Amino acid sequence: MLATTLTASPAVGQQLQRQQQQQRQLSGGQAAAARRRRPAPVCAAQQGGGFGDGVKRMAKQITGNLPVIGLISRWASTEGGVGNDAQAYPEFCRQVFDAAPEGFQIAVAELQNKYGKAAQRRYVLLALWMARHGAGALPGKTIVDSARRLRISSDLEFEMDRFTEALAEVHSKYTYMERPRGSPQQQADIAVDALARLVLNLKDGQPIPEEDAQVLEDCAVGGFWDVPEFREAAKRSIAERQQRASAYL
């Protein structure tokens, strides 16, 4: 009995070795098959990456058109201008109050003390809002003439609505493209000229009085607080105003 067990043991051991070898071969084959199959989804993901990026870009562009997401984005964005919406006048005023340098408030107060009703903050802000968002998209004459009418009529809502409609008509042509926007110098020229017509009651091309130059500069800069080069552009615009005598014909 003992001899049988001893003689059988090598056979059993060999059988166990064969079973283990078969298991290793089977496991190796399964792993190789898994490795062969694994690149497929990876390649698919890589091939679809460009498309996904394009979808993301498109989604960002049309966020404002989605009823729910667009509404939430508008609530969360205090500065406005979400999706296809241009920044509204009240939103612009709120940003100026929060971000404009202290010199802006002082400049507006000085202009109002000297020139009266036409230099009220709400009128000044309307002129700056139109210059900021309309330059490059609308003719400068549209904005400067609006400032001139505002001095006479004091009808802020009429001028605001008229400008908004004109700007919306232009923007409707650029639904998924970058909208036209003026350079800082173009914006400065229109801002200075609009304020000159509104507050100082100067005709096109008339020079800014020396005593008002710094105050008008501070006032214009307040509407472009986030444009570092705007102050220099405003200085240049004030100094060269006579050269724009025929700019708004």
Automatic annotation (TrEMBL):
Region (Disordered): 20-45
Biased composition (Low complexity): 20-33
Gene Ontology BP annotations: photosystem I assembly
Domain of life: Eukaryota
Signal sequence, start to end: none
Protein name as catalogued: Calcium homeostasis regulater C 1
Native organism: Chlorella sorokiniana (Freshwater green alga)
